[in-house]
Amino acid sequence: MTAATILHADLDAFYASVEQRDNPALRGRPVIVGGGVVLAASYEAKRFGVRTAMGGGRALRLCPHAIVVPPRMSAYSAASKAVFEVFRDTTPLVEGLSIDEAFLEVGGLRKIAGPPEVIAERLRKAVLERVGLPITVGVARTKFLAKVASAVAKPDGLLVVPPAGELEFLHPLPVERLWGVGKVTSAKLRDRGITTVGQVAKLSESTLTAMLGRASGRHLHALAHNQDPRPVRVGRRRRSIGAQRALGSRPRPAEDLEATLAQLIDRVAKRMRKAKRSCRTVVLRLRFADFARATRSHTLVHPTTDTEVLLATARTLLRTAMPTIYDRGCTLVGISLTNLDDKDALQLMLPFDEVPPGALDTALDDLRDRFGTTAVTRAVLLGRDPGLSVPLLPD
């Protein structure tokens, strides 16, 4: 059996922690980032039941004395870059998961840096001293268990799961600790009296597949036995680029939703071109007033970087969802561009236009880089609140 050499490092209440770091008056007090919808909550606010993606009104009813601050995405991005510098100073084998978490492989560093638990403690100290933020680290033999360990150790903790004690640690945990167990799967399992990971592990793979479907059943059977062969991958290119915008609880007319959609497409298409990628699949994500979610997608015949093609596809997806939106209301719109490929892989289509494909998009990207994102905008967005488009976490 291999040693526990994988670290999962996860910043604690990241956005809220940055706000508390930068404003001493907020330290030790309940902080909510974002007004209409909670983007992040400090642990002082979480103790009152405030959670990410909760409506702002509900959050303040749970925690009336909370301090609400507007998000500062540039500050969070700068903090993330500084933390990842600490990660890369620790080991060259870093796999970023999102703006605030990563896997690190430290198995080859024992002779020069010590055992994994010493490296993990040194990492936590370096992040606090150099960036001023608390971070929790889980150490285990597999990615899955390292991530579970960090979740159990939060906030501001360190937990090492030795190989000999893996199942002893894992099996008493609630089923929700398994990756892939959300509200629906959790309800299916709990309706059958299955509440812990250990109870899942006692079921055969065939029983789980009959209960949950082939893919989910096999996935949960493997995780319940800590079977996760994935190595830490360095330099893996992201599989999607996305952004979302919270809309608040008041009803929105169709033209507002289409304007928001155009704004999101403009931003993610620009980011995609900057990364020198093209996409084939457009994904629309919606959250309704009752907190239920829906996803719709369309795959194009050919990959594209063309903003207008992407926007037309997204508008079609939105229009098919409008009957549901009218019935249930919409509190969040998100767009993801997936099935990404290298931009050079684009196939030129006949007849060739006199203007090179994408020339207009490139010119607009350059103008917005030089003069700001609102220097050139769509007529439909004139006079509208630009709002906050939050980047979606990478896959």
Automatic annotation (TrEMBL):
BP terms from Gene Ontology:
DNA repair; DNA-templated DNA replication; error-prone translesion synthesis; SOS response
Q: Which UniProt keywords apply?
A: Cytoplasm, DNA damage, DNA repair, DNA replication, DNA-binding, DNA-directed DNA polymerase, Magnesium, Metal-binding, Mutator protein, Nucleotidyltransferase, Transferase
What positions does UniProt annotate as the active site of this protein? Answer: E101
| SUPFAM superfamilies xref list | DNA/RNA polymerases, Lesion bypass DNA polymerase (Y-family), little finger domain
Give the molecular function GO annotations. Answer: damaged DNA binding; DNA-directed DNA polymerase activity; magnesium ion binding
In terms of InterPro entries, this protein maps to: DNA/RNA_pol_sf, DNA_pol_Y-fam_lit_finger_sf, DNA_pol_Y-fam_little_finger, DNA_polymerase-Y, DNApol_IV, PolY_HhH_motif, Rev_trsase/Diguanyl_cyclase, UmuC
The chemistry this enzyme catalyses reads: DNA(n) + a 2'-deoxyribonucleoside 5'-triphosphate = DNA(n+1) + diphosphate
Domain UmuC: where? 6-182
Give yes or no: UniProt keyword Isomerase. Answer: no
- Name of protein: DNA polymerase IV
Record organism: Actinophytocola algeriensis
**Annotated gene:** dinB
